[in-house]
From TrEMBL:
Annotated InterPro entries: Nuclear_hormone_rcpt_NR1 (IPR050234), Znf_hrmn_rcpt (IPR001628), Znf_NHR/GATA (IPR013088)
SMART domains (alphabetical): ZnF_C4
Pfam families named in the record: zf-C4 (PF00105)
Location of the Nuclear receptor domain: 1-76
Listed GO MF terms: DNA-binding transcription factor activity; sequence-specific DNA binding; zinc ion binding
Protein name: Nuclear receptor domain-containing protein
SUPFAM superfamilies per UniProt: Glucocorticoid receptor-like (DNA-binding domain) (SSF57716)
Keyword vocabulary terms for this entry: DNA-binding, Metal-binding, Nucleus, Receptor, Transcription, Transcription regulation, Zinc, Zinc-finger
Amino acid sequence: KICGVCGDKALGFNFDAISCESCKAFFRRNAPKGLGYFKCPYDEKCKMDLSNRRFCKRCRLKKCFEIGMRKEYILSEEEKAQKRQKI
């Protein structure tokens, strides 16, 4: 399996799309802020791959949304606590 965002090795579905652990964590931290929070220094023409995925947050987040990652699937702190109690 290959990450739909950066092309790295993916372990499975995260937020309804196949992605690597790095992009999963990036999406969890940045999706609630939205695309308007970031600016692209390269006119939004960045090529996302393993070597340059850290250089432009806007284009990386945009790619996350394009492959189908859904911010509705990010758990709130209360939901995380409830999930831990069940385990």
